[in-house]
Design a protein that fits this description.
The protein is of the alpha+beta class. It folds into 2 domains: 64 residues, no CATH class; 246 residues, Cupin (Jelly Rolls, Sandwich). It contains 9 helices and 15 strands. The strands form 4 sheets. Strands 1-2-13-8-15-6 form a 6-stranded mixed β-sheet. The longest helix is centred in the first third of the chain and has 30 residues. It is globular and about 65 Å long. This is Cupin-like domain-containing protein.
Length: 336
């Protein structure tokens, strides 16, 4: 959010918010609350309203309403199909039903009983990690709490350290989002902690064992957050240690998610501010607590917010026994 004197960054922000349909008064109020004089704020908003570039972008918004209408139809049909706000839970799920009812239908599901044979469920702990791999060098994200765009800037927040030191830090910390080992740190950590993957077993009903994709590791303290975003692939989350609270918003509710850049949303999943993101009030979200030993199928395009309730270890997979290459023709990498 720009501050102070009205410059080109403010003007871009004004144009964007007018295009998105935000009211003139709410734009002026936010500018004033950020230090812009009231008269200056009103002058800039009125100037933007008559500028041909802004008028052109607002005409484009009218065309996009057709897309939103189609998504709205899909949304209404989805609500008719399943009124529940909880994600369906299944105790085991065979291959055919998984793909027909969930993967191809773009619907999430929690599956229990499929990880019972995983040694990781019995072995993985901070004590074992420290004892067996404490001297290995790993990569971790640090400084997340001081950067409001920590997920977008994750590549700038990496730090290398002894795995044992990281485990010690997790054990003695109170809930925090300041440091987290995530899938973005995968390349180095997959090599450094190679033996960990010996404690995972194949999931042939859902995953392709011939694929080189063998999972991404997430390991952090209670309080770690993955803010609202959507992925470019279908994902299967395997919860090994600890619990996670997860909010999901369907793909068809994208118009309510303030998708400002790439796959990211400005909606605060922890404390939504409907003054800043009022359309989010229309989003239909589901929520769950993912327990150790459970799988969550996370469909492509579904917005999700994840928060660790306690020290948590998760492995994520994308190598499904069905096409999952939707990202190959994705070109919207900048602001949308």
């Amino acid at each position: 959010m720009p501050h102070g004197t009205v410059d080109d960054e403010w003007r871009r922000w004004i144009a964007e918010n007018l295009t998105l349909g935000r009211s003139e008064e709410s734009i002026v109020r936010e500018m004033v609350s950020n230090g812009v004089a009231s008269d200056d704020a009103r002058h800039e908003v009125r100037a933007a309203l008559i500028h041909p570039y802004v008028q052109g972008s607002r005409r484009l918004r009218e065309r996009l309403k057709k897309r939103d209408w189609i998504l709205g139809v899909y949304r209404r049909l989805s609500v008719m199909h399943r009124e529940a706000t909880d994600i369906e839970r299944r105790d085991g799920l065979d291959r055919e039903e998984f793909f027909e009812r969930f993967y191809y239908a773009n619907r999430p599901v929690i599956i229990a009983g499929m990880l019972d044979e995983w040694p990781a469920l019995r072995r993985w702990s901070c004590a074992i990690f420290r004892e067996r791999w404490g001297e290995r060098e790993v990569e971790v994200q640090f400084g997340r709490e001081s950067d409001p765009d920590f997920e977008i800037n994750k590549g700038l927040l990496t730090k290398k350290m002894r795995f044992g030191d990281y485990v010690d830090l997790i054990e003695r910390s109170s809930p925090t989002n300041d440091f987290y080992m995530t899938a973005s740190n995968h390349s180095l950590n997959r090599r450094a902690l190679a033996e960990l993957w010996d404690d995972l077993k194949p999931l042939p009903p859902y995953l392709d064992p011939r694929s080189p994709d063998d999972g991404f590791l997430w390991f952090g303290p209670a309080g770690t957050i993955t803010p609202f975003h959507h992925d470019l692939t279908n994902n299967l989350l395997a919860q090994v240690v600890g619990r996670k609270r997860i909010l999901l918003v369907p793909l068809h509710d994208t118009p309510f998610m303030y998708n400002h850049l790439h796959c990211f949303s400005t909606v605060d999943g922890k404390r939504p501010n409907l003054e800043v993101t009022p359309a989010f009030a229309n989003a239909r979200f589901m929520q769950c607590t993912l327990e150790p030993g459970e799988l969550l199928f996370l469909p492509i395009g579904w917005w999700h917010y994840v928060e660790a309730i306690e020290v948590s270890i998760t492995v994520a997979f994308t190598n499904f026994a069905a096409p999952n290459d939707f990202f190959v023709d994705y070109t919207t990498f900048g602001g949308v």
